[in-house]
Amino acid sequence: MERVTIREASQRLRIPTSMVRECIRGGELKAIREPQADGRMSWVVELPEDGWISEATSEEMNREFCPWWWGNIDKTGYIHYVESLSASSWEETVPRFLCGEEGDNIWAATELAEEQLCLECQMRAIEQGLPQANPS
Ligand SMILES: [Zn+2]
Prior knowledge:
This protein is an alpha+beta fold. It folds into 2 domains: about 5-55; about 65-125. The chain has helices at about 5-15, 15-25, 55-60, 120-125; strands spanning about 5, 30-35, 40-45, 70, 80-85, 95, 105-110. A 4-stranded antiparallel β-sheet has the order 6-5-4-7. Strands 1-3-2 form a 3-stranded antiparallel β-sheet. The N and C termini lie far apart (about 40 Å). Bound molecules: zinc ion. Zinc ion binds near residues 97, 99, 118, 120 and 121. Zinc ion binds near residues 78, 98, 101 and 118.
């Protein structure tokens, strides 16, 4: 079983660090305290099997993982395609969207409305043969 930091778990599982912590609290992910190279104890998360999806996420989305997410908590503006996630110095997740914009964090887009999809992200996803959004 591979053990990684909360920050890395967030990137590997493609969920915000806050959700990794929630999953640990809820018992969905197993975390233990391990001594690090510098002798300090810190939390590490046991990486679940491939295809794992948090209950919170799956409940909220009730569908397969979809790369289309909101970039702000108000869920205003456009739904973007998350190209990659990185962690800021304070361990929050910073998404980079396909169109080049960056968000504060990511919030699952539960309903994809055609007019709310970022056009730039859609065009690039088509160009690169990435999964398309299926507006409901
Ligand atoms: Zn976009």
